[in-house]
Amino acid sequence: MTSAISSALEAVRLRLAAAEAAAGRAPGSVRLLAVSKTFPCDAIREAYAAGQRAFGENYVQELQAKGAELAGLDIQWHFIGPLQSNKTRPVAELAHWVHSVERLKIAERLSDQRPAALPPLNVCLQVNVSGEASKSGCAPEEAVELAQAITALPRLRLRGLMCIPEPTADPARLAGQLALLRQLRDQLVAQGLELDTLSMGMSSDLDLAVREGSTLVRVGTAIFGSRPYPA
Ligand SMILES: *Cc1c(COP(=O)(O)O)cnc(C)c1O
Q1: Best residue for ligand 1 mutational test, from 35, 181, 210 (most atoms within 8 Å of Cβ)
Q2: Bridge-partner residues for 216, per DSSP?
Q3: pLDDT single digits (tens) 122-170
Q4: pTM
Q5: Over the stretch 166-217, which tens digit does the pLDDT of each residue have?
Q6: CATH code at 174?
Q7: Structural domain contains residue 218
Q8: Residue 185: helix, strand or coil by DSSP?
Q9: How far apart are CA 39 and CA 227, in angstroms?
Q10: Residues near ligand 1 with C-beta < 6 Å?
Q11: Closest ligand 1 atom, residue 37 Cα
Q12: How many domains does the chain have?
């Protein structure tokens, strides 16, 4: 019997493949991160059984609990939520990737706390591409300097940039914000940084994000269903 999650996952894979083809991108050039925040370990097990390996979590305690419960599985954990400096240690110890680095202090703590036995932690610099005051991420003007500083940290590997655009029904406005992240990435690459990741695109806008150059889409609702609001 196929589960609801495995069929939804298959539908997202097809949608991603169609978006790659429509954008003239190579098949498989965009990775799928399954955002499992607020969903139970059983939901992760179902997606895992359907071949998914990369999972995204937003809350440190939830990452810790799920990491412990699912320790026997070959899961690649991506931390994608806001990160306070007093909560960096478990993330440095458990995560394979952190997409939400937005300040040097957080990056320095993650580098200091990354266990020596593990490979360097993969990180993305989160950029506030919409300019909304409420949004996480560094200002676009700060991105170059911050990216260079992060690159110098010994236990981190800067892989690229991440954004959460403004929720808007205006596709041109959305595309402009996604394009800004790509342009910043191009600017950093031109300066010699070796970046291979543009983390952008969610359930509602992954097709557009692929057209704008995304290499990794973070998809929750379209795989697991709608989330109850966390307490
Ligand atoms: C929740 C979340 C997602 C997934 O969003 P959906 O709309 O459910 O696909 C992606 N990225 C981040 C940073 C998130 O917090």
Answers
A1: 35
A2: 31, 199
A3: 999 999 999 888 889 999 999 999 999 999 999 999 999 999 999 888 9
A4: 0.96
A5: 988 899 999 999 999 999 999 999 999 999 999 999 999 999 999 999 999 9
A6: 3.20.20.10
A7: yes
A8: helix
A9: 8
A10: 35, 37, 58, 80, 164, 202-204, 218-222
A11: 1
A12: 1
